[in-house]
Design goal:
This protein has 123 residues and is an alpha+beta fold. Helix content is 15%, strand content 23%. Strands 1, 2, 3, 4, 5 and 6 form a six-stranded antiparallel β-sheet that branches. A hairpin with a 2-residue loop joins strand 5 and strand 6. The longest helix has 9 residues. The radius of gyration is 17 Å and the shape is globular.
């Protein structure tokens, strides 16, 4: 099973050190800017608008439930609502409550029902 997760964890849950796994990029074209400092008036790159996307992969060998509950927000984003303690997702520790799911098995999840997404997860 292949999930592409968009980490949307709030800063009050995770410290700045936990969020920043790698140092910020030192590229002049950050966020599509044409030159260094084009993203902010004071000449600094605007690192706050950078989004981190993780590719998360799961191998299901049994009929064991994944132990995850998804929810759709009002703006049609799919979020991890709950992770069952001891379940497959909990043991692998690759997803967290609040993570945004962008795709499941290559299928975009935006504007889908939770029931449809659960069926994709089981297949």
């Amino acid at each position: 099973m292949l999930l592409q997760a968009h980490d949307v964890a709030a800063q009050e849950i995770y410290s700045e050190e936990a969020i920043r796994v790698t140092p910020p990029p030192q590229l002049p074209f950050l966020n599509g800017g044409d030159e260094v400092g084009a993203d902010s008036p004071n000449g600094d790159c605007d690192v706050e608008n950078v989004t981190r996307v993780r590719l998360v992969q799961f191998q299901k060998n049994t009929d064991e439930p994944m132990g995850i509950t998804l929810k759709m927000t009002e703006d049609n984003k799919c979020l991890v609502a709950r992770i069952m303690h001891g379940g497959m997702i909990h043991r692998q520790a690759t997803l967290h409550v609040g993570d945004e799911i962008k795709e499941i098995n290559g299928v975009p999840v935006a504007n889908q029902s939770v029931n449809a997404l659960q069926k994709i997860l089981v297949s």
